[in-house]
Design goal:
Helix content is about 45%, strand content about 10%. The chain is an alpha+beta fold.
């Protein structure tokens, strides 16, 4: 079975292989970036209570629970 993505054909039945460095990896977000993201999501929750607000609030809460306590 093949898939098409952005003009490229690839075989989706084969496992993905590759090598990864053994050393430590950088976080996708730093703590400061994650906390700023939470603040923006909480602002969206307050500004849009009938639309995306509740979902943004839930995402902010989920992300906050994953951060270390400062």
């Amino acid at each position: 079975m093949t898939g098409v993505g952005k003009g490229m054909d690839y075989d989706i039945t084969e496992p993905v292989t590759g090598s990864y460095p053994a050393g430590p990896r950088l976080a996708v977000l730093t703590d400061a970036e994650a906390r700023e993201t939470i603040e923006h999501l909480q602002l969206l929750e307050r500004l849009d209570p009938a639309g995306s607000g509740p979902a943004a609030g839930q995402l902010a809460a989920d992300l906050a629970r994953r951060l270390p306590i400062p």
